[in-house]
# Entry
Amino acid sequence: MGFVVRFLPEGKAIEVEKPSTLLEIALHHGLIISFGCGVGQCGTDLVTIVEGMPHILPPTPSEQETLAHLRAGPDERLACVATATGDVTVDISPRLFPRGTGPEVVTTDH
Ligand code: FES
# Structure
């Protein structure tokens, strides 16, 4: 029996028959997620799991290391290695900067 992965912000819902990575599911259905290495090391494809984190297999040590480097939140995973096994809602909106690495806001008193 399959499950449904819903991709935000479009809201496209995809029926999936077997455990698959979020990147595989997205690419097979015409959704664009920027990615690089495909093995959980570069951090290009950081996505937010809005619902259903228990339906994503736990991160491998390699993914954990990359998530830590990115200062990812507990709701964030790497689409290329995050494997969905049940209903999930994931936000694939592109990020301009990984969390904690954006430009600093500098204010000056005149
Ligand atoms: S594509 Fe490199 S971490 Fe997913």
In short: The first strand starts at residue 3 and ends at 8. The chain has one domain: 3-91. The helical segments are 22-28, 61-69.
